[in-house]
Amino acid sequence: MSVDTLPKTAAPEAGNMSRLAFRMRDYGIVAALVIIVIALSVSTDTFLTSGNLVNLLDQTAVIGLLATGATICIISGVFDLTASATLALSAIIGVQVGRVTDVYVGMLAAVVAGALLGFVTGTVVVRSGVNSFVGTLATSMVYRGLAVMVTGGAIVYPLTASAETFGMLTWPSLFGLTSATIMFVVVVAILAVVVSRTTFGRRLYAVGGNAEAARLSGIRVGSIHVTAFMISGVCSALAGLILASRAGSAQSTMASGMELTAIAAAVVGGTSILGGEGAVWRALVGALLLTLIGNGFNLLGWDTIYQQVLQGLLILFAVTMDRWLRKRTR
Amino acid sequence: MSSQKAPSIAVRGVGKSYSGVSVLHDIDLDIAPGEVHGLVGENGAGKSTLLKILGGAIKADAGGLSFDGEQVTVGSPRDAIKHGISLISQEGALVPALSVLDNVFLARWSHRGGLVSARADRKRLAGLIETTGFTVDPDARVDGLPIGVQQQVEILRSLARGARVIAMDEPTAVLAEHEKENLLALIRTLAAGGTTIILVSHFLEEVLSVADRITVLRDGALIRTLTAGETSPRELVGHMVGREIDVLYPDPQPVPDGAPVVLAARGLRRGLVNGVDLEVRAGEILGIAGLVGSGRTETLRLLFGADRATDGVVEVDGVTLAQHSPRTAMAAGVALVPESRKEQGLVMQRSVAENVALSSLSGRRTGPFVKRPAEKTAVGEIAKSVDIRAADPEAPIETLSGGNQQKALFAKWLLRKPKVLLIDEPTRGVDVAAKTQIHHLITGLAADGMAVVCVSSEIEELLALSHRVLVLRHGEPVGEYPRGTSPEVVIAAAFGSHEGEPR
Ligand SMILES: Nc1ncnc2c1ncn2[C@@H]1O[C@H](COP(=O)(O)OP(=O)(O)OP(=O)(O)O)[C@@H](O)[C@H]1O
Ligand SMILES: [Mg+2]
Description:
Chain A has helices at about 5-10, 10-45, 50-75, 85-100, 105-130, 130-150, 165, 180-195, 200-210, 210-215, 220-245, 260-270, 280-300, 305-330. By secondary structure, chain A is mainly alpha-helical. Chain A has one domain (about 25-330): ABC transporter involved in vitamin B12 uptake, BtuC, CATH 1.10.3470.
């Protein structure tokens, strides 16, 4: 690209300043995270213990996976409100299939169910042409209803003989982290690469930023959306397995309402709800921030009745800050 | 038109930087009441930035404004409207889902006791439409209107707000020839009535014909303010680019005998378009002329498969495009540079590089991964050949000036090396020098065997660029004219007057 025009009018430091400004805008939310981490490290002596950190990451895994799915959907310009219903339904399917085959097959079945449910959600939204917010809201009711039907409203358990294996996601693994954490980190890393490095990722952003321009560039807008919903479905299923593995059971009311927390985490991380912008690592940061607040409340011994209020304020703060930083560099 | 007299405007020491890069510095400018003041300069010179500062859309970092000698702060569009300044921006600022009526009186609806009175607004609008001579349907939704008409709606809105200073950013870029004439006539009328007009345009003749004085910007600095009667396009261009340059359009090379027909359409129909047949040979540039609403853009969209024809076929190299869609058209080697950068062309929040690479992603990948170095090289080269001036290819494309965005849009499709290039308004918003450059590029591509179909509201451009010009009226071809036909003849045909009837 010809770089000879603007710099003519700008001093060399100006270029650096501009790059710095870009960075501030991009990484403001990371700074917020670091500040909270430092504050907690200083004000408690329990925060920086390996036990607490392992615990913290384990707690982040579920919301982190959901936030990643939400982020990918939001980048492409759709919302997936089925996330928690998909989570419950695929976890139940996982447990039930596990009962008749074995635990591993059951887990695989859960993931496949998540992908299929995502495919259905996506197809419904794309084919009907309904706004994704409404379309997925309705679909999520159907999924929850199916979960109730499948379980008869009861809690489902794996067979007693395999109950221990079923709890494997809670087991300690590499570096003393739980298996759930490892799985979460691996999945997020893969998706981060998919979104930032592949042609699919490029198309995802284009579709979310300007669907018509994307279509006229030869992109199949519908299949990009369906794929985004499928990824979100798989993330939900994995999150469902973690929850079920922890509880040793699954039920139709699992994780109810968590799709909104996931969207909140995505947005706190700095992904624009307008679509076409955002990143997977932001989902991670957003999920960590929300989890940290809960953790901080525990460690500081604060009354948890204030937690929701503070969480709400934090979301407002993060989003305002993000807007402000972006505006300043425009 | 305006109840009060326009103020005299003094701009003093105004400057603006974006993330440390100065795009406008130390601008001193005086504009007299009732003056038509032209503002010209290359793409990215800072014209829009200056207008946006006047219109309160952005804030200057340095300097200030005074009206009639009094310091004023224009911190928001609201302030600007209060001072009687109205900005008609390059990108357009209408609410797509609202009617013409609601847009014209946006946030200033007549009301009685808190209830909007559509009756009163309707009457006011009818009055405005009469003074301007526009023909717009008050109840039409604006997103369904052609760009030229949307523009008129914006002008009506400025007038409805009682603006005494109207700043127009490239208003004629989207207009057809006779609409331009109408607009220029309107500008003269408004100015005679005491309204100040600030006019940004890349059409120097037009600026010279209507403006009292003209200011030239270059690289964010004010180079000179000249009296329109005492200067020439040549002098203006000289000041704009800082040296003498030739701005002659190149002639296309003759189409070789026996060059095969690459693109053919038969009996295309859909909506407005009512039976278009055409053939374009390799190396040939076909121009399509017509009034706004004649179905030019729609025809291009049908050729590309952006809309699917209800009737008729499109053939590339003699093969009918079945399942016609942008994808199949692209696979057959067809590319479309669409009419509107913002709506159909670019993903504004993504980077310049991403936008340019978007239509040819699958050409540069290893498995699912984008080959980034290859992409960087390819984008860099094409950006150079169309002269995109961007400080940083990774910056969002919305931070580029309008003309540079247009060049990026063009580059995006050239990168595919298409066999058939469909271009809707190739040089919309592009500066004089860059325009010549784009013409060279198009004629060069045709010389290398590309088939080109080009729509332009600028008849001169169309006649200079094309081997043949097809004229559409009400969605039907009404004649075909060879190179060298006079613009008047083509315009007459577009209007349907008889003197222009073809051979
Ligand atoms: N929001 C922004 N962020 C960063 N740079 C910007 C922004 N807006 C404009 N610029 C830069 O400011 C410079 C001047 O832009 P401006 O839009 O005023 O040009 P212009 O003279 O109107 O050009 P054109 O004829 O192409 O419309 C350009 O280099 C552009 O890239
Ligand atoms: Mg401009």
